[in-house]
Amino acid sequence: MDFRLTDEQRELQDAARKFARAELPDLARDMEEKDYSVPRDMMRKYGELGFLGVNLPTEYGGLGLGHVEALLVLEEFAQISNAVAFPVFEALVGPVRTIERFGSDEMKARILPEVIQGEKVVAVSMSEPDAGTALTDLKTRAVAEGDDYVVNGYKRWTSGGGHSDYYVTYCRYNDEPGAKGIGAILLEKDAPGMQFGKREQLMGFRGIDTADYAIEDVRVPKENVIVGAGGFGKLMSAFGLERCGNATQSLGLAAAALEQATAYVQEREAFGKPIVEFQAVQLKLAEMAMKVEASRLLIHRAAANAAHQADGLPTVYESSVAKCYANEIVREVTAMGLQVMGGYGYHKDYGMEQRVRDGFAWGIAGGTTDVQKTNIAAALIGRRFNQRR
After folding, report:
1. Residue 387's pLDDT is what?
2. Residue 199: exposure state from Cβ atoms within 10 A (0-12, 13-18, ≥19)
3. What pTM value is reported for the model?
4. What distance in Å separates the CA atoms of residue 231 and residue 260, rounded to the nearest whole number?
5. What pairing do the DSSP bridges indicate for beta strands 182-188 and 166-172?
6. Residue 60: strand pairing partners
7. CA 377, CA 219: separation in Å to the nearest integer?
8. 1 falls within a domain
């Protein structure tokens, strides 16, 4: 078992790191201050350099590499900020992969090249006012009418809402209870009947549009069906890769906090010497490093082992372990970084307090840490638990 990256993986990681650190820090600070998404001209630059197609098929303009390579790139962007990394997240591990995996050939040929080139953005819409963790309670409905579907409903907490061009929208196709009637359909931002609410003001996630939207008699062709009724299990099976991406967004914040804290304690002096000379500081650095390294190994294990699965995706168990651990340690590591830096850590100009705020989001998004723990327990026991009884 070799934990070292290959020469090709290191080259890709280095390219992403050089680009991210040269091009994105000023943009990330401005996005945080003014709360706007990655501009389209920068998105096109991402695309030109191949960062939006790392693990997408070459026939659509992607690089055709593996999940580990995609996560290496995502981590380098996330170390700058989650906001500048978000288009990479959506393309390599998020809703774009749902289209790539389950969409028709025509849909893939139309949308994937646009995303890979940085011309279009895709979001996923799952949650509703009465359907979050209990997702099978969703009420958004797609009804067949001739060659079309007419969609009605209301979506909550859509990251990219109002900014993204396409929406992978979870919906109900019939009256069958629970998951049996659920699938997903593709909606477009400018379609008549798409009504977006105000941009949400959140604790963190500045630079990532988040909005609700109402769907009122939105008519789309039947070709926009991604997964039909009864396909909820398929959609969830593909979610393992999204968990690894979520975990990597957390890891990027934690790794950046460790790097900044390590540099700071060697420069900052107290009582006539750098504060790294004090054992209490050394212990905090060591704890931060252990958590970052363990998180990275869990994520890479889940991604690498996907190659041994029949569907080529991370298992529920390994991806849930990776996500839950990363979501928990990012809160701990960024808080320790803030404490080590003292007043500078608490100051907006130095970035650490932003990591603390952003880090909390990932343990809520994509399934809370407690949901991940029920996934882990179910995998250990070998059966799902009915949370409704």
Report:
1. 76
2. middle
3. 0.96
4. 45
5. antiparallel
6. none
7. 42
8. no
pLDDT (tens digit per residue) in 145-178: 999 999 999 999 999 999 999 999 999 999 998 8
Look up residue 145 and give its DSSP letter: E
Residue 115 lies in a domain: yes
- Tell me, what's the pLDDT at 312? 95
Look at residue 384 in the predicted model and tell me its pLDDT.
84
> Residue 251 maps to which CATH number?
1.20.140.10
Amino acid present at 375: N
Residue by residue, DSSP assigns 354-378 as HHHHHHHHTTTTTS-HHHHHHHHHH
For residue 249, give both structure tokens.
Answer: 């967004």
Q: Is 374's pLDDT higher than 80?
A: yes
For residues 232 and 179, is the Cβ–Cβ distance under 8 A?
Answer: yes
**Helix locations, the chain, DSSP H:** 7-23, 25-34, 40-48, 67-78, 82-92, 95-102, 105-116, 232-237, 239-267, 279-305, 316-341, 343-346, 352-361, 369-381
Same domain, 357 and 301: yes
Instruction: Identify the domain containing residue 105 by its residue range.
Output: 7-120
pLDDT tens, residue by residue, 121-150: 999 999 999 998 889 999 999 999 999 999
